[in-house]
Structures are given as C-alpha cells and as structure tokens.
Amino acid sequence: MQRAHRATPPQQLLDRQALAHERKNQQLKQLEREMNAELSREKKVKAHDVPLTTYLSMDEAEEAEQQRKERIRLRSQETLQAAALPPRMAVANGNASANAIATASTGDQAEIGHMSVKLKKKLAKAAEEEAERRNRRPKAVPNFDQLHAQWDRALQKRKALARRTLDEEEAPTGDGDALSKKTSAEFFTSRAAELAELRDRKEARKQRLLAKEEAIRQHARRKQEKLLTRARASLGGDVGSQRKPTKSEELRVQKVLAEAAKQQKEREREERATDARERKREEAARRVRAQVKRSENVRREAYSGTIVDVKSLDALAKEKAREQRQQFKEAIARNREKLLAAAAARPSLMERFTTGVKRESHRRAALEAVVKNVFQKDLSVLKGVLTDDEQELAREMVAADDEGGNDDEAAD
Q1: Signed CA dihedral, 319, 324, 330, 332: sign only
Q2: What pTM, to 2 d.p., does this model score?
Q3: Rounded to whole angstroms, how far apart are CA atoms 116 and 108?
Q4: Which long-range contacts (CB under 8 A, 24 or more apart) does 211-218 make?
Q5: 55-64 burial string, b = 16+ CB within 10 Å, else e?
Q6: C-alpha distance from residue 350 to each of 343, 353, 355, 357, 365 (Å)
Q7: Range scoring the smallest mean pLDDT among 114-118, 138-142, 210-214
Q8: Residues 99, 130: contact at Cβ < 8 Å?
Q9: CB 213 within 8 A of CB 227
Q10: Max CA distance (Å), the chain
C-alpha cells in the first residue's frame, strides 16, 4: 500500500484527463449558451442603417443625380460610336449616303450629323434604288458547251479508272494448259436447257453492251471527222488565192489531230483490256467447271450409295407436292364429315322450340305447386328466395286463383 501511495501516474494519462475535462467544460458552456438563447424572452434586434440622404442636402442630391445622368449619356455615346453594321449593310449604306450627300443641299450636309427625318428618308430611298438597280443587273450566261465538255472528260476518266485492270497474266502451263485445251463437258448436265438459256442471255447482254460502246465510238469519230473537215475547209478555202495559213490555224489543226490520235490510242487500249478481261473470265469459268466436275466425280466414287442425282430433284419435288395435295384433300373431307355429323346431331329449330315450351310449362307447374301447397300463397315468405320473374309469376298465379275462387262463390 505504501508503494502504491508513493507511485505517480504517467504524465500522458494526466494530460489526456486534463484535455477531456476541458473539452467537457466547453461543451457544457456551449449547451448553456444555447439554452439561454432559446429561453430568452427578448430577442436582440439590429436596427437598419441611417440612409445617406438624411445627411445630404437637396442640392447635393440633385447634383449627384445630374452627374449620374451625364455618365449614362457619355457611356451611351461611346457605345454608339463603337458599334458598326455588318459588311454588306455598311457598303450599301455607304454608297447610299454618298449619293445622297452628293445630291443633297448644303443645309442637309450641315445636318448629316444629326440625321434628320428628311435625310433618313432620302438615304432609305437611295438604298432601295441601288438595291433595285443591282437586282436588274444582267448575269453572265454560262458556256454550256464548255461545261458539257468538262463533264464528258470527267466521265471518261472515271470510266477508264473503273475499267483499269492488271496486265494480262502469263498463260498457265502443265495440267492447266492441257485442261484449257480440252473441251469441257456441260456444267450441270441435268439442266442443259437452263444453262443454254443463261448463255443466250449472257451473250445478248454482251452484244448490247458492245453495240452501245460502238455507238459511242462512232459518235465520237463522226464528231472528230466533222471538226477535221471544218478545219481543212478553213485551210483549203482560199487555195486559189494561195493564202498561207496562220499560226493559230496550224496550231488548231495540230491540236485536233493530236486529240484524234490520243482518242484512237485510248480506244485501242480499252479494246485490248476488254479482250484480256474476257479471256480471263473464260479461263476462270473453264477452271470452275473442271473443278466442279472433278469434285462431283470424287463424291460419286466415294459415296456411290448416298448420292442423289440432280435430275431426280424435280421428280421428288413433284411427288412431295402430290402427297401434300392428297393430304390436304383428306383433311378437307374429314372436316366436312365432322361438320355434317355436328349438324345432324344438333336439334332443329322446331325441336328446340318444343323443348323450351315444355320446360317453361314444367317450371310454371312446379312453381304453382310450391306456392299453393308449401307456402299456402304467402308471398312474403317467398321474398328473397325467388327471382324477380318468378316472384311476378307467383303473384299472377295467386291473383288468378283468387279470381277463380270468387267466381265459384258467386255461382253458388
């Protein structure tokens, strides 16, 4: 115990306890201030500041207002001077104002800065006349021949670029050459008629394209010949007078001849390219037909029992269509039999009417027996038990029975 009394706690523990105690005191003080503020009956009210006009005289206020208006006027003038119209409107207004100033009197020139109403009207009228004059100005007519020639040249360049192909490849050697020399069998031999029709259509289409290209070439050739004839006529018209052609005529003839030679070379190049493409296409078709034939032979040899000939497809399709038509007819016959059986089993209109009359008479008899024998004509007991129609029917029965009883008593 003595040792415990002599011992001292660590310094950090003491510091933490002091901080916790101080924090707790601060929280208590804050809570007390908040409670006092909530419970206080009189709240503190801060008065508005005294306006400056209280300390200013009337003259000073008017002077300040005048200064403010002057600042506004100066600022608006600066903004107006810095503003500018769009370029086109500025040019139009400048021309109109120049014309108006040139024709206006000296009094109008003195008032140009103030822009009077008269001057504004005059400027507006001058601007309208200038705009109308510009609208009436004739526009240049385009050279349609030159435009068409440019368009034609561009079209020919695009066609030449589209038809551009690689140079003709070397002819295949070995088996490929031997295969090309052999006469290939018909492709799809079971459809020879369709193949012949396709070939005829392809040949007709090729002939149409060739005829169209030939017509275009003939037209271009006639056009060139016409130009040459005109140039030669212009050169040889004055042969009798031994007139020497001018330099421009010689250059024109040279240009026409150069254009004709260039176009002739272009046509020859296109023809060679077309022939090369046709040869490549025919070679590719021969290769495809040979490859298909070889693959068909391999399949027939390898799977001889499971191969279905192409020529039997039409017969199979016809047989399948025949079976489907037969099934459809049988289904129609079955549906017809079902409809006839249902119509025969259904009662006729007279039978349904007779059955309804009997049912109604039995219902009335049963209701009459219940009302007379069970409830002794007391309709109040039947309330809520019978429907409205049955209640009305029971009431009519009781009334009819009462009338019959009264008649019997009167007769006695």
Answers
A1: negative
A2: 0.21
A3: 8
A4: 217/267
A5: eeeeeeeeee
A6: 15, 5, 9, 11, 23
A7: 114-118
A8: yes
A9: no
A10: 163
